[in-house]
Amino acid sequence: MLRARLDDGTFVLGIDAENVRRLKRGQPILIYISELGGADDVRLFFLYGDTLQDIQNALKGKKK
Question: How many domains is the chain partitioned into structurally?
Fold first, then answer.
């Protein structure tokens, strides 16, 4: 995954095919924005689901 911060303060997160494969295997990605010079209390959590319901279920700890 590419992680960068532009001169104007914009955060850039680039997800490649391997990241997508991992997400599809149920391996979420957690990003700490502080690693890019952002606020310490900001985190981004990426997960994948075939549907929004699948994502909601994953967040609740349910399986398909």
Answer: 1
